[in-house]
Design a protein that fits this description.
The protein is of the alpha+beta class. The protein has three helices and ten strands.
């Protein structure tokens, strides 16, 4: 059985919701899991039936938190290369579409953020409905 690629509208239906979807009176559960996170790159794969789509993202440690705290969106964030205050973890999807950055965590030390932010992004993308609802709320096409 071969997996098929989904159009963006289908991706949103498959990946935003964590509830069961009903088709022909059979419950079909969407399974989202994290295949990898390496340094500041992360990904989540969402599967429904035989269809799957991989969402790829980047984790950024910045010097400022979100305006309204956890799950705030921002078009960009500031990272100060001369500071050790880049302790705020932000996530962004860059494929197959581009999201705004979403604030998800604050670390005590910049090294902790650098070591764990990608893991937080990947895990939160697969386990947290509010994260997915928020990050998918303002999308734009990825440049090809």
């Amino acid at each position: 059985m071969k997996n098929t690629k989904l159009p963006i509208a289908a991706i949103l239906i498959h990946c935003i919701t964590t509830t069961n979807l009903y088709s022909n009176n059979n419950i079909q559960t969407i399974d989202c899991h994290t295949p990898y996170n390496t340094n500041n790159r992360w990904a989540a794969t969402c599967i429904k039936g035989e269809s799957e789509i991989e969402i790829a993202g980047i984790a950024k440690c910045a010097s400022a938190a979100g305006e309204s705290d956890i799950y705030s969106l921002a078009p960009s964030v500031t990272t100060d290369p001369d500071s050790e205050d880049n302790t705020y973890c932000w996530c962004q999807i860059y494929s197959p579409f581009i999201s705004q950055l979403i604030y998800i965590a604050d670390f005590l030390y910049q090294t902790e953020c650098e070591n764990w932010c990608g893991n937080f992004c990947a895990n939160t993308a697969t386990t947290n409905q509010k994260f997915r609802d928020t990050i998918f709320s303002k999308l734009k096409p990825a440049k090809e």
